[in-house]
Design goal:
- The protein is elongated and about 55 Å long.
- It is mainly alpha-helical and 100 residues long.
- It folds into 2 domains: 50 residues, no CATH class; 45 residues, no CATH class.
- The longest helix has 21 residues.
- The two termini are 31 Å apart.
Length: 100
């Protein structure tokens, strides 16, 4: 899944080449260009709105994790330590939800 910034012919081609089903909404200018070209514009790319709604859950999770300053600015240089920080932040968020 991706947002409209990832909606390009090259990215869609790369994903298709790797066998990855893309769920990316089309930008307005791309829709207009495709319609302007008529039959030569091709068909619109597949887009599943039900699957795309699940993306919101992931985006909200990232937003909550970035409330932790060490996660947002990535103070840790080593990937293992950064991962440990993300896990700790996730646990803190999870425990806060459980306490409600």
């Amino acid at each position: 899944m991706g947002d409209k910034a990832h909606s390009s012919r090259a990215i869609r081609h790369l994903l298709r080449h790797r066998g990855i089903a893309a769920t990316i909404p089309e930008r307005r200018d791309q829709v207009a260009n495709r319609r302007r070209r008529g039959r030569r514009g091709g068909r619109p790319p597949a887009f599943d709105t039900e699957i795309y709604r699940d993306r919101n859950v992931v985006e909200r999770c990232f937003a909550r994790l970035k409330q932790f300053r060490a996660i947002a600015t990535r103070f840790d240089k080593l990937a293992d330590r950064y991962r440990a920080g993300v896990i700790l932040a996730s646990l803190i968020l999870w425990l806060r939800e459980a306490a409600r």
